[in-house]
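Input chain follows. Return structure tokens only.
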Amino acid sequence: MAHLLRGVAAGGTLRVIAADTTDLVAEALARHDAAMTAGAALGRTLTASLLLSHVLLKDHRDRVTVKLDGGGPLGGVIADAGLDGTVRGYARMPRVELPPRADGKLDVGGAVGRDGHIEVIRSHAPYGDPYASSVELVSGEIAEDVATFLARSEQIASAVLLGVSYDDASGGGRAGGAAASARVRRAGGVILQALPGAEEAALTLLEANVRAFGQLTDALARQDLLQVMEELTWGLGFELLTQQALPLAFRCRCSDEKALAAVAYLTPGERAEMVAEQGGAEVVCHWCGQARFVDGEAMATLSGHEVRCPDCGALWYREGVTTMVRDEERCACGRKVALTA
């Protein structure tokens, strides 16, 4: 089962957060029917967001969202996680597959691209304004980009290890007709951070341990997560802080109610046409791939006064719903919003 552990080393001056995300990554790849390269990018981002939640968040109701878009064929990848151990995410083009790199590894950096940014958004409960920060991508391989974000935006020196491996990665994205999700061998990640008071000797030994460590997914295949943490902090007096492993799960927050709210953005004429032609509308959640059917009876409840853009038809206001846009703002088409008569 996917889980997360936390610990410290070097007398509490090094923080260690590690996660085995094999099961939830396999589920995510299955939900999105992802190819191997796109699936590796998504899996790394899902894991990174879970690890970052334990670095950046304090309240169990808070969420952290990680976005990477480097202009590559993947079209961007995004994940949203919280301290409750839940995560969701998607790649815009989940079936993207690229040839392996010269070293035989999956070309995640080529799929993500390098001409763009990694953006991290913290949403604070219950009503705090989201806080976003971003830095330029370094490689598109995600782990190095997360480490760069922590160093530049948070001023925390970090080593970040992320990985997704498959049972047979040599045959291309869909060799043998098997979906990438069915072939996930191991997935996981580790963040190691220098805290105030860390001594140079401890950091030097930690760097040597990381260089000698090898591939994270290979280590997860031969030993458990605790042993991985102990190996990375060899000689530094590792101390496990987690009394019980935190369960992790891929979990979306979509619902029938949210599907109906999405249909409300269609004009009344468009909704009537869909009911007449197919009895309703199918709404697919981009976060998890779940399809929901909104029938004519449910659509009929979308009554009440509404205001739409005269130029493009975008929904500006619907009675009984929290304000979508405000007076004097600009619609997506450029027209100035006017909600009052």
